[in-house]
Amino acid sequence: MRHAIRYDEELRLLGELCRELVKLGLGVGFRDALPGLTVTTDVPGVPLYVFVSESGTDFDWHNAEMRHPVGDAAGAARRIAVFLRDHRMGQG
Questions:
Q1: Contacts of 23 (CB under 8 A, 6+ apart)
Q2: Domain residue spans of the chain
Q3: Within the chain, which residues score under 50 in pLDDT?
Q4: Which residues in 1-92 belong to E strands, given as ranges?
Q5: CA spacing 20 to 30 A to 70: which of 39, 56, 62, 90?
Q6: For residue 37, what pLDDT is reported?
Q7: Which of 84, 68, 79, 83 is nearest to 13 (CA)?
Q8: Residue 80, CB-side half-sphere exposure with 13 Å CA sphere
Q9: Which candidate, 52, 43, 54, places its Cα nearest to that of 76?
Q10: How far apart are CA 79 and CA 24, in angstroms?
């Protein structure tokens, strides 16, 4: 299946989300193998992976069970932070 989003646009969106997550004090890195972010959790060696959906419309995490529109990176970052806290994976 082909992605509906260009690679450079995918990276731009992930960069925006990365900046918003860092503003919230979360540890974030870029994945090398596939475009995506790794968000550090309290569980050693178990990051949360965040990707742009194949359609290019959403940020996906938790095995794509959680989604948020890419047009709202700040809102996605807040939802990811809440998700980590609620699942006892959050930092601090």
A1: 77
A2: 7-86
A3: 1
A4: 28-30, 37-39, 48-52, 58-61, 66-69
A5: 90
A6: 97
A7: 68
A8: 38
A9: 52
A10: 11
